[in-house]
Amino acid sequence: QRYSIGDTKVPFCLQSCIKPLEYAIAVNEFSTDFVHQYVGKEPSGLRFNKVFLNEEDKPHNPMVNAGAIVITSLIKPGANKAEKFDCVMHFLNKMAGHEYVGFSNATFQSEKETR
């Protein structure tokens, strides 16, 4: 059963909201213990985009940019970028109850240029 209210059919960009979803993919593919060999579990007290490692030389957690990069690298190790992208899109589609999940190349290019 599904209940919707508001503009539920209006597409929106996930951007940083993807971090917990990619964390879910990595934990689902491996395990929490495995994932946390590479990324911490504690808050950093710093801005999300600050590149800073904890005392174990790991990003503080999967929700800061450095941690999200590490988490993304764990998804489908050895696969090329297209295979990793397909894996993430498949998982997101499944998590969305097989509702439409899209990709905005314009947003991607804009974000890529600001890095």
Structural key phrases:
115 residues, mainly alpha, 0% strand, globular
Task: Give a verbal description of the structure.
The protein has 115 residues and is mainly alpha-helical. It has 5 helices and no strands. The longest helix is centred in the last third of the chain and has 15 residues. The mean pLDDT is 88.
Estimate the global geometry from the Cα principal axes: globular
Task: Give the helices and strands as they follow along the chain.
Answer: HHHHH
> What is the number of strand segments?
0
Write down the overall mean pLDDT: 88
Class by helix and strand content? mainly alpha
- Which stretches of 5+ consecutive residues score pLDDT under 50? none
Q: How many angstroms separate the termini?
A: 41 Å
Could you tell me the radius of gyration in angstroms? 15 Å
Oligomeric assembly: single chain
By DSSP (H or I, 4+ residues per run), the number of helices equals: 5
| Helical proportion, percent range | 40-55%
Note the beta-strand portion. Answer: under 5%
| Major sheet characteristics | none
Layout of secondary structure:
Elements: H1 18-29, H2 32-35, H3 65-74, H4 81-95, H5 105-113
Provide a concise account of the structure shown.
The chain is an all-alpha fold and 115 residues long. 43% of the residues lie in helices and 0% in strands.
